[in-house]
């Protein structure tokens, strides 16, 4: 039999043409040896699986579900394990009532077993009449010319590529199945070799020329394999872990992103970089939730580089809060802004729930101007950590009042609705256009992107973060005083919580456009230190596959929450080398003091 298979396959490979467009295919999951699951049928059915394999053996006029007669368990009959439960799903309208293909793999003699199967199925009229349930015979089968002798509800698994000219016989074939090992020894790790990929693709195309769905058996069983076979156009994805395969493939469309955003990469001069010269200004950029994988996704989707990746001074910071392994943005922002770790949800408060001086308040004493720019509401946890002191991040109205009375000279962000009438007696001039910022002669200015939350890049926000950074820097620089500016790319974190790779990448690339403005400014002045980091990582992102040339990235996630992993920190400008190494997040504050020579 093996020689016949190989000869048939060899002949098929030599002269095939594409005749079944992959764009017309829709994958289905096949639960291989489903009866070996801890809960047969229900595990597969409950996870939306549409093809279920049942090995049967006829013994003592009973159809047992088993691979070998020596493994028979008395009560494990096809009726008990599959037919009766499936009938109840119809009667009780359980699950999604999806189409279900029972691939009955006959292990005993074909004719006698099939005869008994037909007799058995006659006792389940609801099943054989159901439009969404089909019975397909695999394993030991009669010769194809005998297929037409069986009832209409009985179809067959054709395991050859030999042409069938008889339309009546062809109509009895439900799918074509072939052993994967005859074409490739691939184990599901890495990639198919070029030759194997071509060979496998050719076989799939040939099988589709029959206008029938196709399945490989004996395939590697991994995420990489499931995606590869789906992309190749295999109709039934063979798996022993149907729940895992279903979860992975159902979310694949939302986890693969073809990028259309772009950040023009700026090549720094490095004229002032790492020089042991005085630092006048500090620009701190925080990508909320922007871990190493998030940065990598933006890099790989942006032709393989960003302005960020041009920098030479790189380190890592540990993000744990004072009371938890995994920080939130409030505790992380407070640690960076004040130099002291604190409890989650705290804004500018220490672990004893007392206010602690932040960097903008400290630098105000040294004649610095300060500003905060964010794509979040301006009262969000990260920007608030640089001007406010509240026991909990949700104390929004109190945080807003802290902003009105803060030492900031500039703020730009969302959430104007929170500030109704709050600026009437303040020194802030609220501008109605971002273009007015850089030429404003006011002492303190603010601008709101939006009444509530700021739109994302995916929702048409446009280039406003880079523009705000550029104009904010111009405003602060014209005051002829040293300044500190914090710029937050807030929505990298938002999309991380959603496990949305498209949003992570678009926001990460947009964040890089703001970094570009900061690096350009640093090159112009020669006395500005730029620091880029994150408050924490969000989502446990990994990047299993993609295509740099086509800007395609697949993201996979371990959580919808923050993680405890270290995050990168980059620096550029005078004394930037002091930010290399691995250290706690609260050390960033002390390093800023050090380079500014503040004791």
UniProtKB/TrEMBL annotation:
Mg(2+) binds at residues 288, 382, 488. The keyword Iron does not apply. It holds the Pfam family GDPD_2. Gene3D superfamilies: Alkaline Phosphatase, subunit A, Phosphatidylinositol (PI) phosphodiesterase. GO terms for biological process: lipid metabolic process. Its cofactor is Zn(2+); Mg(2+). GO terms for molecular function: alkaline phosphatase activity; metal ion binding; phosphoric diester hydrolase activity. The keyword Magnesium applies. Binds 2 Zn(2+) ions. Keywords: Magnesium, Metal-binding, Phosphoprotein, Zinc. SUPFAM superfamilies: Alkaline phosphatase-like (SSF53649), PLC-like phosphodiesterases (SSF51695). The active site is at 329 (phosphoserine intermediate). Zn(2+) binds at residues 288, 493, 497, 535-536. Belongs to the alkaline phosphatase family. This is Alkaline phosphatase. It comes from Tenacibaculum adriaticum.
